[in-house]
Amino acid sequence: MKLIITKDSIEGGTKAFELIKDAMANGAKTLGLATGSTPLAMYDAMCKSSLDFSEMISINLDEYYGIDPTNAQSYHYFMQKHLFDKKPFKHSYVPNGLAKDIDQEVDRYNQIIAQNPIDLQILGIGQNGHIAFNEPGTPFNSLTHKVDLTESTIKANSRFFKDESEVPHQAICMGIKSIMHSKKIVLMAFGKEKQDAIKALVEGPITEQVPASILQDHPDVTVICDEAASAKL
Ligand code: F6R
C-alpha cells in the first residue's frame, strides 16, 4: 500500500487526478467512481483538464435506494453535476435507485462490472471504515447488493439533506469482492474525522468489522490523505 500525505484536499484531489491521467496513458478504459465530499477536488481537476473521457466507461460504486435520479441528493445527480455534464463519458453506469426489482438490478449491475473490468477504482472512506456503502460486517466476498445503512452513516450523510429524516435508509452498492477486482485502487481521505478509519485501514487487523482493511491485501492501492486524516499513523 502506497501512502501519499498532502497538505489539503485540493492537493490530494490533484494527485488523484494525476493517477487517473497516468492510468489512462497506460491504457485504462474503465474508471470506478465515488460520490461524497472527498472526491470533489479530483472531479474539479478532471473538469478543468483537457483530458477527453468520451471513450471511457465509468461505473459508480453506489446509489441510494428509493430516490429519483433527478433528486438533488441522488448520486446520479451528483455525478452529472460534478463530472458528467462537463466531461461526458462513452457510458456511465450508476445503480438504478428506483429499480422495482432489486434483485434484477443487482444482477444487471454485476454483469456491467463483469463486462467492464475496472482499471482504476476511486474510493472514499467512512468514519466507521466503510467503503462504498459496505458497512462494518459486510462479507469480504460480497458482490453488488442492497444495503441497510447504519445510524452513523445516516447521520454523517444528513448534512447533505434538509433533515436527517430525509436520508434514505437503504442503498444499492458494489460489493467488496468487486472493488478488490479493480486493477488499481486510489482511496482518498481528508479531515480529522477520518483519522481512526485511516489508522484502521493502514495499520489495523484485516477484519470485516473494518471493510476498508481488506485493501491491505490488494496489490496496487494508493491512499491519499491530508495531514489531519493521517495524524494517528
Ligand atoms: C460514496 C461512497 C462512500 C463515501 C464515504 C465518505 O460513493 O462510496 O463510501 O466515500 O461515505 O464520504 P465523504 O467523502 O462524504 O466523507
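^ fructose -6-phosphate complex. The first strand starts at residue 2 and ends at 6. The mean pLDDT is 96.
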